[in-house]
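In the current project phase, work has continued on tokenised descriptions of protein folds. One protein thus recorded appears below exactly as we store it.

——
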Amino acid sequence: MTRGTGLRLAVLALVLAAAAGAPAADEPEGDLRVGEVTLVVTDIYGREELDRSTPVMRFLRGAMNGLHTGTRHQIIRRELLFAAGDPLDEDLLRETERNLRGLGFLTNVSVAATDTLPGGVVPLEVRVQETWSLTTNFSYSRSSSEDRWSVLGSDDNFLGYGVRLEVGLGEDEDRTFRRLAFSNRRLLGSDLYLHTSYADLSDGHLKALTFSLPFYSDDTGFGYELSMWNRRYEPRYYLSQAGPAGDGGEARLYAGLPVAEEGAAVTWTWRVSSEGADRFWRVGVGLLEEKRTFPWQLDEDVELSDGRFVDDDVIFGYCPALCREIGQTVQSVVVIETRGRAWAAESFVLKYGPAEDLFMSPWLRLTAGPALAALGSDRERFIWNLFARDWSRLGPGFLYTELAGSGSLGSARNRYFSLDAVAGWMVRTGRNQVSRLVVEGARGSDLEGTDAFVLGLTRGLRTMEYDGMAGDRLLRWNAEHAYVVPGELIGFYRVGLAAFYAGGAAWWDGETRGLSRARHEAGIGLRFGPTRSASADLARLDLAWPLDGGGGPKLTAVTRGLF
């Protein structure tokens, strides 16, 4: 970290510490007040469920209860948005339920009144059920040319203290990796959040630290975040076949270029809408400083993915996007965030397990600001980032829409933009059938090679390699219908039998591929939804056939991504 970064962060830390001491907003008035708050915690398998089990299942379920470390009661109580003596607010009770489910290791959450005593005192009962907090994300594909795998394991409730511990091992693109991450939601009993991660890569490393005061409640008045990172790795830098490095073919083209990054960012944000408003607004300001270099030996040729060697001028001289990102960027930012309060707890939307919380009103976050030479930037430009998401009801199901974008305004050499839109319709038909339709479109201009849209195993097509296609344009689609088998497999999984069809293409502007070269596939598979793990993703074990020729079926196992 540079000395300038340290000085800026020290000053900002003092400002944040002073702002954190600002008085809280006035409490809303009410006739009823919260009385005694009773906490009831049930094991992963409750007593009644164990009594109904066969001897073998009773033993297995009892062993799972015994191996799982129960959540300590103070960890649950610290998440409550109310205390004895507070005015009774029904919205806070429902928001508390959502927050407890959002921890990732509790389910079947309810906060309800048990009585109304003289004087308007209302005792409350908070009921939660433990879930299996150990989760594993596994990705594997096998074809005639390669085997790829990765596994990422985590415990969202390490030793019952609500601490997240994550480890990973596998192969990502062309490099192997080992990863360790640690998160503490409320550091030493305070409202502060700490996250630190370290990754040992075969071509470098990643070190990151985040320290923040999050918005634990919609009506929290103030929050801030401080992040620092240092990483070196060798990503695939994708190139167009229509550019100087291309040979006119249709296969994806990339080079491995080492990248070194170090930086820091700090933002502090305030709620500006009135307390209890149907839609809340937050605004903030911040500062980002990042230094990026490509430690490349300029007297060496660059090897491309097709085995050819090209002069480094073909990469560095032709590619303005690459040169644009070299050097130091210091940006002041403004943050605008808004979201409505409407949300719903549903099942069988994205997962087969416990209830999912869907925010049923648009959510948007925009960060934008100038990178100025006066602040220390090597190139002046205006940089923006946008993310928006919405869930809404459409017929018997739910419509999901998402938009992610980023860009830069300035001289022709510094301009670029990237927009990625996803729309999905998820519907549960009958009692045991689930249908999903997902469409994604993306377009960019003057993208850096590491920002290319990549279509492959974990993003759209199972019969392709990890990154079978890449470019600044992408269109993909997936349709799936699954029958969910009644009951639970070994009392832990819901299992579905699925049939699917998918297609898509990614290409660079100027290439001849386009949608006329789209790939298509169809197949069958199994779906596994953990019912006793609140944070585990839906696991997919698929056998897919390419519909455009290209050989026999491909077996894939994936627990990440959204096809």
Q: What stands out?
A: Residues 80 and 232 are 41 Å apart (CA to CA). Residues 3-20 form the longest helix (18 residues). Confidence is low (pLDDT under 50) at residues 1-29.
